[in-house]
Design goal:
Elements (H helix, E strand, L loop, with lengths): L10 H14 L9 H23 L4 H8 L4 E4 L3 E4 L3
Antiparallel strand pairs: 1-2
Helix pairs in contact: 1-2, 2-3
Length: about 90
């Protein structure tokens, strides 16, 4: 990961941040700081990857794929967890 001093907020990224903020907010009047929203999103990504890895030993691959695969990360060909983001 390269380090950048600024984060370019495209329209799509703004929409994602707004939606994520609504999910993280404790109520309709709460407006969490962007750092809290980003921290929650990062924690969710890490936990999702752990859930997929843990689920592989407990459930059949089709069930893991149906319940856990997203546009960012998922179980591929029953054998590995793959990031689809890049």
């Amino acid at each position: 990961m390269s380090r950048r001093t600024s984060l370019k907020l495209t329209d799509e990224r703004e929409r994602h941040l707004k939606r994520a903020s609504e999910i993280v907010a404790s109520g309709p009047d709460d407006d969490p700081p962007m750092s809290v929203v980003i921290d929650a999103a990062l924690a969710h990504l890490i936990e999702s990857e752990e859930n997929i890895r843990n689920g592989r030993g407990e459930y059949d691959p089709e069930t893991v794929q149906q319940l856990c695969n997203t546009s960012v990360i998922g179980l591929e060909y029953r054998t590995r967890v793959k990031s689809r983001w890049r």
